[in-house]
Amino acid sequence: MTENEIAKHVLDAAFVVHSKIGPGVLESVVYDGIRFDEAFRSDLVVEGKVIAELKSVQALSPVHAKQILTQLRLTGLKLGLLINFGEAHLKNGIKRVINGQLEEKSPADISL
Description:
Structural class: alpha+beta
Largest sheet: 4 strands, mixed
Strand content: 15-25%
Shape: extended
Order of helices and strands: HEEHEE
Strand order of the largest sheet: 1-2-3-4
Radius of gyration: 18 Å
Oligomer: single chain
Number of domains: 1
C-alpha cells in the first residue's frame, strides 16, 4: 500500500472510533467490543457514583462537557461535575453534566 492508502485506512478507523466513543478518551479506547483498562482517567470518582473533572482554564469550553459525558457513558455513571479553578469566582466555574436521568430524593429524604 502507498502512504496515502495507509493514511486513508487510519483515518477511516479514527472516524469510526470517534463516532462510536466520542471525544475525551486517551489514546487507548474501547473499540469493537474490546475494553482497554486506560480508556480515560477521571480526576476524581467519588463514592463510585460521581465523576469530578478538575480544570484550571480561563473558561470551560463545550469540549470539556463532551469529555465528561463520554466518561459517564463509558462507566455507566450518571453525574459529572466540571469544576474550573481558573474562574475568579468558583461558582461561575461549575457545570453539572448528566448521563440519562438522576434518581431524585424526596424532600423528606434530604437532610440539611
